[in-house]
Specification:
This protein has 338 residues and is α/β, with parallel strands linked by helices. It has ten helices and twelve strands.
């Protein structure tokens, strides 16, 4: 048996274990990382549709703002982000499924609802996962959690309807940067093609996610980009998103999802970073890179992680101090400019 065949057999056994556990439970909580994105939300809603088709009771709780491009989807009402609205059934949750979280604490305040004796299914495509679940379905080679959920649903025999296909497609589309990142594999493209065959309207969906800014959002984006900072002879680009500026415009961080991608649109840039002051003396940083420059390893130095070309971290300092600290680390990471 080839290594590839052995891996397939192992994965199918793991998925079968997930399906068996899911079938045996009734009250199921779905969650993901703080500040949910297209992959985490799309994966949760798609899996929720599958669970509800079997008559399961499902709760979807997340901490953080929902990206603006999700606001037009009717199923967003099922995702609760206000902690004061999080309720627990009298008999408690008998299963928790967590998507895209390397450790349990990454779900933030939702973790307080997860009792010590409850079984957890951990579905993640990040390489540094701590394997905190009863079942850990981990694949660093997958483009997204959505691709992994797609595999589960296909294995289950569930007929993927156009609505569920749409959320899975969103998960894959957004986590591959519109099929731009190096995580865009033949497998994820096959999955995307099948989802289109299931009824995804590609044009309508792409317009909703990537071409649906309000005028104020676009003007604000232009203002932020106009204040970009370049360092190390143009090989590094920093953007800054300040909380006070957001509040002045009545916007939330989720309304500016994808802003970090602008750092990589300059020809010479090898590493881009978006700095956000999410609370006093705390700077949240989104990182992007080109080629073999591994920003995931960089993120590990600053309480974070992710993928080689797309990662995130935080530095407990104000924005300007955080920029200096990160720039010093980048001077060591990047090869000398020739």
């Amino acid at each position: 048996m080839s290594a590839t065949t052995k891996e397939a057999v192992r994965e199918n056994k793991l998925i079968d274990d997930i399906l068996e556990l899911v079938h045996s439970r009734s009250n199921i909580l779905l969650s993901s990382h703080v500040g949910p994105d297209g992959d985490s939300l799309g994966s949760q809603i798609a899996f929720s549709n599958y669970l509800k088709s079997m008559g399961k009771n499902v709760w979807l709780y997340n901490q953080g703002h929902i990206p603006h491009y999700f606001h037009g989807f009717k199923d967003m009402d099922s995702i609760v982000v206000e902690p004061d609205k999080w309720t627990v059934p009298p008999q408690g949750f008998d299963l928790v499924i967590i998507f895209e979280c390397t450790s349990l604490d990454r779900i933030g305040d939702v973790s307080a609802l997860v009792k010590d004796n409850v079984d957890i299914i951990n579905i993640d495509h990040h390489p540094e996962n701590s394997e905190y679940g009863r079942i850990n379905y981990l694949d660093p080679g997958a483009s997204s959690a959505g691709e992994m959920v797609y595999r589960i649903l296909k294995r289950s025999g569930y007929k993927i309807d156009p609505e569920t296909a749409t959320y899975l497609y969103i998960a894959i589309l957004t986590d591959t940067g519109r099929f731009h990142f190096s995580s865009t594999t033949p497998e994820c493209l096959y999955a995307a093609a099948d989802l289109v065959d299931c009824g995804v309207n590609v044009k309508e969906l792409t317009d909703q996610i990537y071409f649906n800014f309000t005028e104020d959002q676009l003007r604000f984006t232009a203002d932020i980009v106009s204040r970009m900072e370049t360092h190390l002879h143009g090989r590094v680009c920093f953007l800054t998103l300040r909380d006070a500026e957001l509040k002045a415009r009545g916007l939330k961080y989720g309304d500016m999802e994808g802003l970090v991608e602008w750092t990589m649109r300059i020809r010479k840039v090898q590493v881009g970073a978006l700095f956000k002051d999410t609370r006093p003396n705390f700077s949240k940083i989104s990182l992007r890179s080109q080629g073999n420059i591994d920003v995931c390893r960089l993120a590990h130095k600053f309480n974070g992680g992710g993928h080689s070309n797309a990662a995130g971290c935080h530095i407990e300092a104000d924005l300007e101090t955080a920029k200096k600290i990160l720039l010093e680390a980048l001077e060591e990471l990047l090869p000398d400019d020739e």
